Amino acid sequence: MLDKNMQEEMEKSSSSRRKMKLWLFRKLRIKDSWRWRWRFLGSAFKWKRIHFQLSFFDDVLFKIVSVFEAVVLVATLCFFFLCCGCHI
C-alpha cells in the first residue's frame, strides 16, 4: 500500500516535471518563431515610396549642413594655426 502510493506520487511528480519541461520548450519555441516571423514581416515594410517634397527638402538641408560643417572645420583649423603660432 505504501509502495503503491509512493510510486503513484513519483509518477505524478515525474509527469509534472516532464510537462513543465515541455511547456518551457514550447514557450521558447513559440518565442523564436515569432521573432522569425517579425523579421520576415518587417522586411516587407521597409520599402516606402519616395515623396518628392521630402526628398527635395532633405537634399537642400544636407547641402546647407555640409557647407556649415566645412566652414566650422576651416575655422577650427585657422584657430589652431593662429593660437599655436604655427605658420603655413
Automatic annotation (TrEMBL):
The chain crosses the membrane at residues 60-82. It comes from the Eukaryota. Keywords: Membrane, Transmembrane, Transmembrane helix. This is Transmembrane protein. It comes from Manihot esculenta (Cassava).
